[in-house]
């Protein structure tokens, strides 16, 4: 199989870091997502470009290389357009989250995906992180009972960010870019059974990063009558041990499961603070490549990825308008599962 | 000084546990808050009643003993009525939170307090807990910058609760009873500068406890454009190490302060994870008794206590109605500071 990379603004390392483990896959080209992207510099400086041919224009690259898979991580507002371009050519796409920057774009990518028949995988890797997987399985296995209260946190160091982050039009927002992971966790735990969204965000405290929101919260009402709340921020101080911090807690009548400090721990009526066993780490991109050959289902389907994106965009809307936004239930007749 | 106890449904141990340290204070009587309260049994079994005379009726006790201070912890819906009865007799009150079960009761207790001239202290002890005090001081000292994102959690074991907990009319609700502490923390950090409240709660998963909400969330929009979100629940499993769990995180441009596992930790651009020094523990009731003699201000004033109560009741309203509730800014002309 042949793969190309379009854009270098996101987590293309999710694909490149597992190259050695995918002998069946060859990277045949890399191109910027748009003319003003400094892909070449990024590749020249960091990515040993000699190993992957560089193209100035991705359509030309697609025409010439006819890849099977495109790894798509351009300026954030170009994700859905480029993903649609690829899918319309029959190319499977591994695409940076949130995948669409507006509900209209989301609608289009959903439609193009449905009629293209290709596979789509978002760069939402947490369902393959062993500690998150262990927590999600504990919930699936009924160990906490019905999940009725979920809290989640995602925090990053701000540092000095590329100008793409400083404008809503190119960045999308901190809810779609950062909080989306916690939204994915909550979606996974609740199976998307969310009825209403409230949210808030602010640009105060963003240290000169223009329109970038320094922090945000989102709350979801769940159809089981419970709630989920998440917070996301760029306030993690420079001196902190790691770039990012993340935590998750899901509570129900039978117990509490948490992901904290890279471990999943479960407390139930009988067992205080049991560290859950972790599976061997799996790379989402390797799983995606394998699923294309095998037809095996990914842990995050395209339908789920679209729903996570929709939740993120509607959460941003709820924050922008400071008004609750209804979220229609799943099972409402859409058929886009991949 | 003479003190009495009215009711035994709440945290009267906050007063009784420091008896030995208050030689200037004598407990001269204890009475139930209402006829159907099993105070006598509680006292006979647990409180060495021989040491404190028992009265069947609190008004008779007040008439006879003419105490200086009343420790008030009856069925939760009687808190404000009994506190008003005492204040109208010129008795200082140490009263269980939330102090009022409705906004009308809150209005009355505010008015009675204002014209009585007595001192009022709520059973909201966290501003005297060394780890919380350390965190609040770090914020006051500007170590995290403007607090823009606050998250808080309060979780308890449910066990088998007294029937008073199973009816809204006697219990008040999990937001006023449990979440109120986290509301107090957020009030302390933000100085009450909250503009809007959203909330949710559910009785699902309450294991036969009638109308008791098993879990709840509250989100606040702050007037500095930031947000605060808290969760409260009774899902802490029986096997957990302690009855309660609590955590607090406040983040701003300059740093993050957290209270977790009984410690306050600060992270800033220069210092990773510094454990903040803790003052010697202080008991809120002892501070209250001292403040009556000395006139010194408590760390939680009556005005702040009323505002925390108002936030709790309006949060409950937001949860009941599933509709955001405006919170008027402080500085709107009230003068009830004690």
- Kindly provide the name of the CATH class of the largest domain in chain A: Alpha Beta
Largest sheet of chain A: 9 strands, mixed
Low-confidence spans of chain A: 332-338
CATH architecture of the largest domain in chain A: 2-Layer Sandwich
Query: Helix/strand/pairing class of chain A, anyone?
Result: alpha/beta
Cα separation of the termini of chain A: 20 Å
Number of helices in the DSSP assignment of chain A: 10
Q: Could you tell me the strand content of chain A as a percent range?
A: 25-35%
Number of domains of chain A: 2
According to CATH, the fold-level topology of the largest domain in chain A is Dihydrodipicolinate Reductase, domain 2
Q: What is the average per-residue confidence, as pLDDT of chain A, rounded to a whole number?
A: 93
Number of strands of chain A: 14
- The H/E string of chain A reads EHEHHEHEHEHEHHEEEEEEEHHE
What is the CATH homologous superfamily assignment of the largest domain in chain A? Dihydrodipicolinate Reductase, domain 2
Largest interface between protein chains, with number of residues from each side: A-B, 53 and 53 residues
Helix content percent band of chain A: 25-40%
Shape estimate of chain A: globular
The strand line-up of the biggest sheet of chain A is 13-12-11-10-6-9-8-7-14
Can you walk me through this structure?
- 2 copies of one chain form a homodimer.
- By secondary structure, the first copy, chain A, is of the alpha/beta class.
- Chain A folds into 2 domains: 2-118, NAD(P)-binding Rossmann-like Domain (Rossmann fold); 126-326, 2-Layer Sandwich (Dihydrodipicolinate Reductase, domain 2), CATH 3.30.360.10.
- In chain A, 32% of the residues lie in helices and 25% in strands.
- Chain A has 10 helices and 14 strands.
- Chain A has helices at residues 13-16, 39-46, 58-65, 79-88, 103-116, 130-140, 168-171, 174-190, 284-294, 302-321; strands spanning 2-6, 26-31, 69-72, 92-95, 120-122, 147-157, 194-202, 215-222, 227-236, 244-252, 255-260, 263-268, 274-275, 325-326.
- The first copy, chain A, has a 9-stranded mixed beta sheet with strand order 13-12-11-10-6-9-8-7-14. In chain A, strands 2-1-3-4-5 form a 5-stranded parallel beta sheet, with helices on both faces.
- In chain A, helix 4 runs parallel beside helix 5.
- The longest helix of chain A has 20 residues, at 302-321.
- Chain A starts with a strand and ends in a 12-residue tail after the last strand.
- Mean pLDDT of chain A is 93; it is low at 332-338.
